[in-house]
Amino acid sequence: MSWNQAFLARFGLWDAVLVVAVSLQATAMAYLPQPRLKAFAYYLPIPFSLALLALGRPVDTTNALGLLLLNVYIHGVRLLHYRLRLPVVPAIALAAIAYTLIAWELAPIVPRTEAAFWLALAAGALLALALYRLLPPKDEPEHRTALPVYVKLPVVALVVSFVVAVKNQLGGFMTLFPMVGVVGAYEARRSLWALARGLPTWMLAMVPMLSALRLAQRHVALPAALALAWCAFLICLLPLTYRQWRAEAQTERQRAAISSWRLRG
Known about the structure:
Blueprint: H1 3-9, H2 13-30, H3 35-42, H4 46-55, H5 61-83, H6 88-106, H7 114-134, H8 149-165, H9 167-170, H10 173-176, H11 179-187, H12 192-216, H13 222-264
Helix pairs in contact: 2-3, 2-4, 2-8, 2-11, 3-12, 5-6, 5-7, 5-12, 7-12, 8-11, 12-13
């Protein structure tokens, strides 16, 4: 069997759906001008759900640890680009490679026990709570992409195809790989803080989602378990997002009032 045949043999129906859906999500996200809307669209767990179906494995410790590892990518891109002044494309590439290599090394040795899963999920929840309280809102410019669709779609499709090809090596880490984020971080390069600040909100919503999947997968088929998990995710995400957006709006009003006062003075 040639390399091309072996590569194509790894693809099934859900793999193809994953490639198409993530490519469309990344493209649609690019045309949202507001940073908070970009972050919200970025964190919808469509890639996670389809990747789980493509992987065809029960949720385990590697999925829970993926919550922690995703911070390496999001904050890695932000720090490399903003702090070290690295161009955004190399910053994205380095952060994505770091995620892949760490996941590749951890996947074979991570224990899949019940205790390990819940401990990893608890660690993710604690980190998310800390970041949710510590990361303040910042003003960032609105931005709508000029990157052509005919460039964006192939890039995303190639990235997702690579992740699918190595899904057995990555295990559950594959479901949390920043598939949309590879192009999404480029599109949000002027509002990377909004992506970073949206991450703990998403993590907090993913905790009940992963919990629901872990508990439901023993009793129902994976699609039914995913439907229950989406309900748990949205019940948590929507009020948290509303609270965060309200706080940001209040901060913006206070800054506008201060600016107006200074101008009058």
